[in-house]
Design brief:
- The protein is α/β, with parallel strands linked by helices.
- 50% of the residues lie in helices and 13% in strands.
- The chain folds into two domains: 302 residues, no CATH class; 61 residues, no CATH class.
- The two termini are 50 Å apart.
Length: 372
């Protein structure tokens, strides 16, 4: 039942937006997103924390302003996704134009296929469709949506121009085949990689982040050039630009680990540079630094262990322990030959215990209990 409801909601939303004129569809989706986003406070917290990491010198007001623009951009992107079936080779120029296509063309002439390095930036769903309509279709790496009906619906929109998805969990052989056939594979490389056997920790905005090694391994194994390709909103044109950067210079050595680290560092730097130019077009709600190197605590505040109980609870616990210890000593004393409560030996044992908490070492320990 739940899957049917989700599918009906997705189909209705996409169909409604597709029937609207493009400017109205983008405006409507942005307004809806602005209303829905506050309902997910965990996303808002993650986004603001990510912006604080990326731009520590910004005042809080600037981070909040960029967050509002990011939410608007998600709405715009949703509208562009709904409009994908309406774009053709004849009208795609009204939505997005190419910039630096010669860089891609030069990489394509090498005859080893091309790897597109990109991320969840600006209108990332529009980017592969635009490339297919301007040039020819590509393959793109995806993680299937949990709801299979919604996944089929979304892929139907994505593939209207001839593009084809490659499921991430079964991607190795299909990607090698595409590259051998001189095709193009697009990979979103800006997300946290939970499977540590597929990741390496390299800096992203100065903090180690679990980064996929998939692109690096493909590039090293096949010699395919890696071309950064991403869209960004050009306010002067009132359109998107699909920018192709020159293929990255990737040195090859026999040291595989060094190559993986070098390549992934370069890839992260490319995405970082984009975000510095267009921070509001970065999908910053994703917890990019969730996975940590062995021994490091979580970086996100709401994922960190809860604070220890307050000093009062420590005091109650230690007081209870004192009572248990006193009972044990009383038992031991009762078993001794001189067990009279009025004996000097008893007073010598009991009196320090009665006076220890107000002024002795035990009091100092408890008063410092906050640091435990």
């Amino acid at each position: 039942m739940r899957e049917r409801v989700e599918y009906a909601a997705a189909w209705t939303a996409l169909t409604f937006l597709r029937l609207l004129p493009r400017p109205l569809a983008r405006w409507t989706a942005a307004q809806v997103m602005a209303m829905l986003f506050p309902l997910r406070p965990s996303l808002r917290r993650a986004a603001l924390f990510n912006l604080q990491i990326a731009f520590p010198d910004w005042p809080e007001a600037e981070r909040r302003r960029v967050l509002r623009l990011m939410v608007r951009n998600i709405g715009w992107m949703a509208a562009e996704l709904a409009l994908l079936p309406t774009y053709t080779r004849e009208n795609i120029g009204r939505a997005i134009v190419l910039d630096g296509f010669e860089n891609f063309a030069a990489a394509e002439t090498r005859g080893k296929g091309v790897l597109f390095l990109t991320g969840h930036l600006s209108a990332w769903e529009l980017t592969p469709l635009a490339h297919a309509l301007y040039h020819r279709p590509i393959h793109f790496l995806v993680r299937p949506i949990d709801n299979s009906s919604v996944d089929a619906l979304i892929n139907g929109y994505r593939c209207r121009s001839g593009n084809r998805p490659i499921v991430k969990s079964k991607s190795a052989r299909p990607m090698l085949r595409v590259l051998r056939e001189h095709g193009v594979v697009g990979i979103l490389a800006d997300l946290n990689t939970a499977a540590l056997d597929e990741a390496i920790f390299v800096d992203f905005f100065g903090i180690p982040a679990a980064t996929t090694t998939g692109i690096a391994r493909l590039a090293r194994h096949t010699g395919a050039p890696v071309v950064p390709a991403y869209a960004f909103w050009d306010d002067s044109l009132r359109k998107y630009r699909l920018r192709y950067e020159p293929a990255l210079a990737l040195a090859r050595t026999d040291d595989e680990e060094a190559v993986m680290r070098s390549y992934t560092t370069q890839f992260n730097k490319v995405i970082e540079n984009y975000i510095r130019r267009f921070p509001d077009q970065w999908l910053c709600v994703h917890r990019r630094w969730r996975m940590r190197p062995t021994g490091e605590p979580p970086i996100y505040p709401d994922e960190q262990p809860k604070r220890q109980p307050d000093a009062q609870r420590y005091q109650q616990r230690d007081s209870h322990s004192d009572e248990k210890r006193d009972e044990q000593r009383d038992k031991e004393f009762a078993c001794s030959p001189s067990s009279s409560s009025s004996s000097p030996e008893h007073r010598a044992i009991r009196e320090p215990e009665q006076n220890a908490f107000p002024g002795g070492a035990e009091h100092k320990t408890l008063s410092g209990g906050r640091s435990r």
